[in-house]
Design goal:
With 250 residues, the chain is of the alpha+beta class. The chain has 3 domains: 56 residues, no CATH class; 98 residues, Beta-Lactamase (2-Layer Sandwich); 68 residues, Arc Repressor Mutant, subunit A (Orthogonal Bundle). The protein is built from 8 helices and 7 strands, in the order ββαββααβββααααα. The chain has a 5-stranded antiparallel sheet with strand order 4-3-7-6-5. A two-stranded antiparallel sheet has the order 1-2. A hairpin with a 5-residue loop joins β5 and β6. It is globular, with a radius of gyration of 22 Å.
């Protein structure tokens, strides 16, 4: 950070319910005095409250973005990371992706999948770059990145942006409701339509324990049946449900 005139740095992870929901990096100018122990204690005291707020914000109904955002979009980037071409849907998604304040900067989600692609090229990873991100309108999108061929000697990258599937969001939404790891496992099995006996066998617990976990899940999510649970969790992405903060414990 020295070229930017920055010195001391203070970082914090915002955790709630055993999960990390965000992070913070604070910087001070390069000077003899940096952050103090009192500064660190203050951030530490605030971190759990911020984490709880970020977790609850996951459950606030999203604004309807319209049917035009249901179509996947494609962005083509040049070797210098400039935007070479885009589909009409890709242009709409590009506007929806949160971006840094600097003019001309790529959205952070795009930078993330590009970094994943660089890791594959360097042999540090072999998993197709994939990032899940919440858009400006509150919807969820998934980005994929891959190298393109047939466009001459210059290297081009294709970024595909598409709506996140409900099944991809269910684990995250369940955690946002404050479910324990075991409750989330039972709930995910219930969302897949598995009967209690099958859930008990897969998780090696009794059917009575499965029923107890489901009762706790229903109470935290604010529903009364498997059907209502499925409707509630799978509607989080579309934003059709009314705004509601989670009622379960952190």
């Amino acid at each position: 950070m020295a070229p930017l005139g920055l010195g001391d740095e203070l970082r914090a992870a915002f955790r709630s319910g055993g999960e990390c929901w965000g992070f913070l990096c604070l910087h001070r100018e390069d000077a003899p005095l940096g952050f103090t122990e009192a500064d660190a204690r203050l951030v530490a005291r605030l971190s759990s409250h911020v984490g709880a707020g970020l977790r609850r914000a996951m459950l606030v109904g999203a604004a309807g973005a319209g049917a035009e955002f249901d179509a996947p979009g494609v962005l083509v980037l040049g070797e210098d990371r400039s935007l070479v071409a885009t589909t009409a849907a890709g242009d709409r998604w590009l506007w929806e992706l949160p971006s840094p304040e600097q003019l001309g900067s790529l959205p952070l989600a795009v930078e993330a999948v590009l970094a994943g692609l660089e890791a594959i090229r360097a042999g540090r990873d072999d998993v197709v770059p994939r990032v899940r991100v919440r858009t400006r309108s509150g919807r969820w999108a998934v980005l994929h990145a891959s190298d393109m061929a047939g466009l001459g000697e210059a290297r081009h990258v294709a970024i595909v942006v598409e709506p996140a599937k409900p099944s991809e969001l269910a684990p995250l939404i369940l955690l946002a409701y404050g479910l324990t790891q075991r409750e989330a496992e039972v709930a995910q099995s219930a969302l897949q339509g598995r009967p209690n006996k099958a859930v008990a066998g897969a998780l090696r617990i009794s059917e009575n324990t499965v029923e107890d976990h489901l009762k706790s899940v229903f109470a935290k999510v604010g529903v009364g049946s498997r059907g209502e649970l499925t409707a509630r969790i799978f509607s989080e992405q579309s934003g059709h449900r009314p705004n509601q903060l989670c009622s379960g414990p952190s």
